Amino acid sequence: MISLVEVSHAFRGRAGAVEALAEVDLEIGEGEFVAVIGRSGCGKSTLLRLIAGLITPSSGRVRVDGVMVTRPRPDVAMLFQQPALLPWRSVRDNVLLPAEILRLPRPAYAERAQELIETVGLAGFEKRLPHELSGGMQQRAALCRALLHRPRVLLMDEPFSALDALTREELAGELQRIHMDLRPTTVFVTHSIQEAVLLADRVVVLSPRPGQVRKIVEIAIPRPRSFGHNAHLEEVTEHVAELHELLLT
Amino acid sequence: MISLVEVSHAFRGRAGAVEALAEVDLEIGEGEFVAVIGRSGCGKSTLLRLIAGLITPSSGRVRVDGVMVTRPRPDVAMLFQQPALLPWRSVRDNVLLPAEILRLPRPAYAERAQELIETVGLAGFEKRLPHELSGGMQQRAALCRALLHRPRVLLMDEPFSALDALTREELAGELQRIHMDLRPTTVFVTHSIQEAVLLADRVVVLSPRPGQVRKIVEIAIPRPRSFGHNAHLEEVTEHVAELHELLLT
Amino acid sequence: MRTPRVVAPFFGVVGTVAVWWLATALFHIRPLFLPAPPDIVSAFRRQPAYLLHEAWATVTETIIGFGIAAAAGLGVAVVLAASRTVERALLPLFVALNSVPKVSVAPLLVVWLGFGPRPKIFMVVLICFFPVVVATMAGLSSTPAELSDLVRSLSASWWQTYVKVRLPWALPQIFVGLKVAVSLAVVGAVVAEISNPNRGLGAVIVLSGTSFDTPLAFAAIVLLALISVVLFYLVASAERLLLPWARAITG
Amino acid sequence: MRTPRVVAPFFGVVGTVAVWWLATALFHIRPLFLPAPPDIVSAFRRQPAYLLHEAWATVTETIIGFGIAAAAGLGVAVVLAASRTVERALLPLFVALNSVPKVSVAPLLVVWLGFGPRPKIFMVVLICFFPVVVATMAGLSSTPAELSDLVRSLSASWWQTYVKVRLPWALPQIFVGLKVAVSLAVVGAVVAEISNPNRGLGAVIVLSGTSFDTPLAFAAIVLLALISVVLFYLVASAERLLLPWARAITG
Amino acid sequence: GCGGSAKDEDPSGASSSPDKVTYLTAFGAVGRDAFAWVAQEKGYFKAARLDVTIQPGSATGENLKNLAAGQAQFASLDLVGAWILAGKGEYKDFRTIAVIHQQTLVSIISLEGSGVASPEELEGKKIGAATGSVNQLLFPAYAKAAGIDATKVQWVNTQPAQLPTLLASRQVDALSTFLIGQRGIEKAANKKAVVLPYSRYLTDLLGNGIITTSKIATGSPDLAARFRDAMLQGLRYTIDHPDEAAQIMKKAQPAADVAAAVGEITLMTPYVTPSGSSSPIGSVTEQRVARALGTLQTANLIPAGLTPSAVVDFSLTPKA
Ligand SMILES: Nc1ncnc2c1ncn2[C@@H]1O[C@H](COP(=O)(O)OP(=O)(O)OP(=O)(O)O)[C@@H](O)[C@H]1O
Ligand SMILES: Nc1ncnc2c1ncn2[C@@H]1O[C@H](COP(=O)(O)OP(=O)(O)OP(=O)(O)O)[C@@H](O)[C@H]1O
Ligand SMILES: [Mg+2]
Ligand SMILES: [Mg+2]
């Protein structure tokens, strides 16, 4: 589905270039859920932007569905690290933006938008403007927007970073349910090792700048995985410890 | 030091008012480290803004040092949920902003800024503009700025939300060191229960909207506390479980 | 206790009139140079119907011309903002065109468009067009990177990008252009009327000027100022109505 | 393979000149109404030194007036943006003042300020002032809430808030005002020169008009356009130099 | 006056340093105004101990305002317009010190073949004129004298500079303007022009004249006389040498057109010389002025009561 071959990316700036990614090789299968972890500034967002076609790599090739990525594709949805809500649109209209742009039938999607808004706990705020929301609420609105049109590929850049532990768990559970349901190919950047282990089929560990694939850890725990105490607690703990170790060195 | 008496706050908007905080009573002593946790949208940021004097309560009284808060005070530093960096200033100049505004001697503070920048791992990025930084790097720059002038009161709104687990632990350790050193009165909003338990003298649990003080939990573990395995692991786990429970209900 | 909205403008106007009156009285300025406020009032009261009738002509020319210029300026700015090459090819031409003194174009307009209101409207368009273009272009190129990334990631078409994101975001800046343009619009109408003084307040100014009736000229100028202020605040209110979000996200 | 920067403007200019030339040739337009490009070139070549000398007079008036207007406009906008009350009291007056037709003010300026460059400079100031004020005010009130919260939380003084945050943030919008103003500046200088035609390209236009030398008038107009374009792009380059960050955070 | 760079130094002090004065031409820099530059170039001003700054003037009203404000001390302008203003009491503080055109140059000009060859043919036609100009104000009197109905004429108001274009582009059938513009109009329209001078019926009106403020006329008559003489010397030289005069003006005002200027000078020459061959250039009699004012009164342009000496300083007009 998604393949990166020797992908490097450097940002040129006035104060010299920053090498963000170096020689990243990665294959992600159809319907797979891949989590990406790594130190702050190691190039995780850059990686997502490359797959989304928002930037083109300095060298190497990025393919989605076997096609070279040169620009964004409508079947790939990106959830940005910042909420990026349109300040003049209400929450509902922000969530409906992809339907408008992809010219999907409004009534059906208006219903779906409402469901999503309720799922993330924003019921009652549909008609408010983004500046009337708290940071976490804005992030949840952006999440609804990314999920609205059931994209084939879902790129998520720290979607839960502004959420409290409980909301986080709830929404991670929801995300797992959606993934099992529709099987979008998912690349999920997170800072929580726990979350990565509980959600992903594989966890990609990036080394600090320039980002390189340090290790890819398979998580073979059967789904659905629950977030509280469960039968696989030991495996989870083991993986978490291993990933922690990998990040440290 | 800080006292809130029956503080309520409601935001008026086009689509009706939102009651963010209701009848909050809170006393925070000089040099104390208080963590605030609560569900997303429960009014944590609003609480900090009230103490900072950026907004005035709809009813009730907020006092700092026995003085009614009607506007911001120079000895209170606020770290916002968004990085709020000035886009035309380099990282270093952003960090030095408080020194300029409070007319502190530049050479001394330039040195301190450099130290802080190195501490948070931004060495080498001093001369870059904010848009050249990753989300986590921007947050760390904002953290440096808040710490620069050694304020007496430190209000921090999810300062580590965009950071990976490891950087988070490192910086939490650093924050603890700074607090033990200079003893600023600290109000620390976080989503990580773990972090709250490991950093705070007391943890304030807010109920969902409208935010009310549900419980205040004393954390009596002696300092310095370490973040890995330690002698007080059991107490930590107990507190975490208790707080988790409190948030749930 | 906030003072009501009209108090400040009221004092502003009263203050100006007072200073003006005092100046004419103290320095014994002759009405030929600068008439005192009562002279102007009496000039107005001598023939109010005539003045209002001419004012109405000026107002209609101004509004029609302003409307055309706003629409055209918006369209052109969108085209220029869409392509660097087109911008590089055309913007210098617009700058050049804009710098041609309107006063020397006015006679040509009469030759081309006759004596009716058309040359006046065209002049209003000429004079309003440029500020709208420059402001709109600036607004269109100020879309935050995160929002343009968002629409790009949704594979939005060029048209959608403009309609859904770039234009709404540019609106506060477009209104800067519109505000500047609307006050120039009145000037444009008057310049055209001065050059072909058959109707409008510009004609009143010219005619009264040649007969040395300076108070009448000033009565016309005061009416012009009033029209200008009203139109300006109409645009400003449209802005307030349309863009509550813009005020909300600024502090 | 990007085309070099000068290609597009080059084709823009060549295209316009070609269309113009063709129009004059095809419709047999007489040089009195619209001279063909070669007529203008030869008019210029008959007395280049004179034209350049007068152009220089216009340029200096324009630049001095523009500089004064930019500084004054900035200052006034800061004051108006600082207080709603002051804004409400003064802005309507500025709008009113701005709508007074400059053409009818020009003779008065000569009466007050003499025949030298002063009335021309003053006219440039009058005409440039308003766009700078409106654009700067808009820019100053567009500071994002998070940044104004930041400086407030640092207990910054009024002055610091403006110097460190509000003004830098407003700069991109201030430049919109400056760009509009600079192209009006040239017009202002010419309007004043037309009314008192002793120096400058405005004088050339008037005097050649009275002697029916339309090609010479157009040579002056072309020079004016050139001056305008050069000044506009000088301001635009200043913007590019000063505000790399503004381009970086937009997409 | 509103100050400014007024240069009224004490003219009575007959020092060796020349008196600085500013002079406004009647209208820009065209042939009818060339003589000022001739006087400058030929050194007549210098010989009269004058340091003259020549400013291109705009119109009667503006020139008077600048005189009133002290920005200029002398000016040329259309005497009919100026006297109407004086008669209406708008501005009286000036005195005529010399007459340049002994008859008004105001005329109807149209193009050959446009159907206007005599005053009668004006009825039902469009006539272009500078807004509110003397030309328009005088027309009823002209019409009455010529025996036509003034109300049957449709006026089109424009700016002076715009008039030839309007006629050439056939937006109007005729113009009311100064007859010396004939050559320029012919050049613009590429056709011969038909000229119907007002002076044919309104014989008593005067054309341009040189004026100064009453303060200078009464306070420094010597200065005024010196200025007058230098100017008239220039005028004489100009009508004797039209080509050279045009060249001299072109040198000072490069935008001027030599051919058009020569045309104007030759056209105005007959109007400069007074009818009685004994009276010199620039002179005027009190009776003549009285008749001119009378014409204005009967045309209802000024109220009764304006005396010739209120507008002309006969002690300063040239004498035989
Ligand atoms: N627009 C840009 N211009 C210049 N450098 C950039 C730009 N965007 C990112 N970088 C640099 O690229 C590197 C990787 O950035 P990226 O945003 O991918 O990090 P990240 O892994 O997402 O970090 P975080 O977890 O903090 O969000 C960083 O060092 C950053 O400084
Ligand atoms: N400017 C505003 N206008 C209107 N409502 C607001 C505004 N700011 C916050 N609110 C509302 O107040 C409530 C509390 O907001 P606050 O930002 O304090 O939440 P929070 O606890 O910080 O949430 P989070 O953890 O998501 O940041 C929310 O319901 C929000 O909708
Ligand atoms: Mg990132
Ligand atoms: Mg918050």
Write the layout of secondary structure elements.
The complex is a heteropentamer, with two copies of chain A (249 residues), two copies of chain C (251 residues) and one copy of chain E (320 residues).
Chain A: E1 2-13, E2 16-28, E3 33-37, H1 44-52, E4 59-64, E5 67-68, E6 76-79, H2 91-95, H3 97-101, H4 106-119, H5 135-147, E7 153-157, H6 165-182, E8 185-189, H7 193-199, E9 202-206, E10 213-218, H8 233-248
Chain C: H1 7-26, H2 37-46, H3 48-82, H4 84-99, H5 102-113, H6 118-140, H7 145-153, H8 158-195, H9 200-210, H10 214-242, H11 244-248
Helix pairs in contact in C: 2-10, 3-4, 3-6, 3-8, 3-9, 3-10, 5-6, 5-8, 6-8, 7-8, 8-9, 8-10, 9-10
Chain E: E1 19-24, H1 34-41, H2 44-47, E2 50-55, H3 60-68, E3 74-78, H4 79-87, E4 94-99, E5 106-111, E6 126-130, H5 134-146, E7 154-158, H6 163-168, E8 174-178, H7 182-189, E9 193-197, E10 208-213, H8 214-219, H9 221-240, H10 242-252, H11 258-272, H12 286-298, H13 308-311
Parallel strand pairs in E: 1-2, 1-3, 6-7, 6-8
Antiparallel strand pairs in E: 3-10, 4-10, 5-8, 5-9
Helix pairs in contact in E: 1-9, 1-10, 9-10, 10-11
The biggest sheet of chain C amounts to:
none
Q: pLDDT below 50 for ≥5 consecutive residues: which ranges of chain C? A: none
Count of domain modules of chain A: 2
* Spatial strand arrangement across the major sheet of chain A: 6-7-8-3-9-10
How many E-type strands of chain C? Answer: 0
CATH classification class of chain C: Mainly Alpha
CATH fold name of chain C: MetI-like fold
Helix coverage percent of chain C: over 70%
Give start-end ranges of low-pLDDT stretches of chain A.
none
- Give the DSSP E fraction of chain C (strand runs of 2 or more residues): under 5%
**Strand runs of chain A, count:** 10
Radius of gyration of chain A, CA atoms, in whole angstroms? 18 Å
Please outline the major beta sheet of chain A: 6 strands, mixed
- List the bound ligands: adenosine-5'-triphosphate, magnesium ion
Mean pLDDT of chain C: 87
CATH architecture of the largest domain in chain A: 3-Layer(aba) Sandwich
What portion of residues of chain A belong to β-strands? 25-35%
Could you say how many structural domains of chain C there are in total? Answer: 1
Oligomer: heteropentamer
Shape label of chain C = globular
The topology string of helices and strands of chain A comes to: EEEHEEEHHHHEHEHEEH
